[in-house]
Design brief:
Blueprint (H helix, E strand, L loop, with lengths): L6 E5 L3 H11 L4 E5 L2 H8 L6 E5 L7 H9 L9 E5 L4 H9 L4 E4 L4 H64 L6 H19 L3 H4 L4 H8 L11 H4 L7 H23 L5 H12 L20 H15 L11 H10 L7 H9 L1 H14 L1
Parallel strand pairs: 1-2, 1-3, 3-4, 4-5
Helix pairs in contact: 6-8, 6-12, 6-14, 6-15, 8-11, 10-11, 11-12, 12-13
Length: about 375
């Protein structure tokens, strides 16, 4: 038997009808006769047809009962069924369609008409299968594409973070006094931010931040130091007034660098955050900071947070002009600067998280 030919089941309790149907279809299709609905289901255990021609008026199990059983079985539910019957009333025809038949052919039937009906429904059935296969294929493609996009996104983010870290390290290496300052401040920043989240403080602002992106951006806060002279960056003593004015320009220089990059990119959310932090982390709560002399809540929260962790790390670290202070001394200075240099709410959060700040400082010192 040609396996490429479509398989048609003929189900009728009258042998003459089976012979007639088989003679009509045998030149085009592989036909399987069944003299009852019971025989139909026996055949189905071994062969899956492409279409079933099903008589309605049969003893024991009629066509309506047979189609209900077919549609209730997931193995056979999608096989198209055409009813063959002597019934010609609308009610019987509607019942057949309601039960899931694709067509309804009255006996005696025209051979050419039956052949055309079969051809049409086989085509529709094949198109449905092709559509489902295409949907599965498209879904697989979409899933694979989503995985690919995710993979590429992660690669881009990894590259972005590596570039950020490299640029930040470049500034850090030129300022020998800072050591692991950038890495430590990133960890301190995360802990202070987590404390705000735990305390439900400044939630309107914090809730809309991409924290990982913000922490990566924070690494660029001192990028402008790349352009500051080594004589000033690494001077073993207190800067003169003139030297300090030059040192202060690292903020404007950093802002200029970041703005130049922003102009040449289409998506730069992390750079927008870096710009805010770089421009405002030396502003003071009382308005005496630089470069703009912003005061209180006019200073973006990102800048106020960086001011806390930036100064704390400077206090507990060796610098050319001083030795590292112990935590208790640094804490005392931070508390005395609450309301002048620092946002008092953030100082309170710092105090609540101070044990973890101490632990983080010790961990980073052991890594360095």
């Amino acid at each position: 038997m040609d396996v490429s030919r479509k398989k048609i089941f003929l189900v009728d309790d009258i042998v003459a009808n089976l012979d007639q149907g088989r003679n009509m279809l045998k030149s085009t299709y592989s036909t399987y006769p069944a003299q009852s609905a019971e025989k139909l289901f026996e055949l189905l255990e071994n062969v899956t047809p492409d279409l079933i021609l099903l008589d309605i008026n049969m003893p024991v199990m009629n066509g309506y009962e047979a189609i209900k059983k077919l549609k209730a079985d997931n193995r056979y539910a999608d096989i198209p069924v055409i009813f063959l019957t002597a019934k010609a009333d609308d009610e019987s025809e509607l019942e057949g369609f309601d039960l899931g038949a694709v067509d309804y052919v009255s006996k005696p039937f025209s051979a050419p008409l039956l052949a055309k009906r079969i051809e049409t429904h086989l085509l529709i059935s094949q198109q449905k299968k092709d559509l489902l296969d295409n949907q599965v294929m498209l879904q697989d493609y979409a899933n694979n594409l989503a995985d690919l996009v995710q993979e590429k996104t992660e690669e881009v983010l990894e590259l972005q973070n590596a570039v950020l870290a490299a640029v930040a390290d470049l500034a850090e290496f030129r300022d020998k006094s800072t050591g692991e300052h950038i890495n430590r401040t990133k960890h301190f920043f995360r802990r202070l931010l987590n404390q705000l989240i735990d305390d439900n403080v400044y939630t309107d602002e914090v809730s809309v931040w991409d924290v990982d992106l913000l922490l990566q951006s924070a690494q660029l806060h001192d990028v402008g130091k790349i352009a500051i002279s080594d004589l000033i960056l690494n001077k073993p003593g207190i800067l003169t007034k003139e030297e300090f004015e030059i040192m202060k320009t690292h903020v404007a220089l950093g802002v200029d660098v970041i703005e130049r990059v922003i102009k040449n990119t289409r998506k730069h959310a992390f750079l927008d955050q870096a710009l805010v932090i770089t421009e405002t982390h030396h502003e003071k709560w009382d308005g005496t900071g630089y470069p703009k002399g912003l005061k209180g809540y006019d200073i973006p929260l990102q800048g106020r947070l960086m001011a806390i962790v930036d100064v704390y790390d400077a206090l507990i670290s060796d610098r050319p002009y001083k030795k590292a202070f112990p935590h208790d001394v640094a804490k005392k200075i931070m508390l005395e600067s609450s309301g002048t240099h620092f946002d008092p709410v953030l100082v309170e959060a710092f105090v609540r998280a101070e044990n973890e700040f101490v632990n983080l400082a010790q961990e980073q010192a052991s890594i360095a």
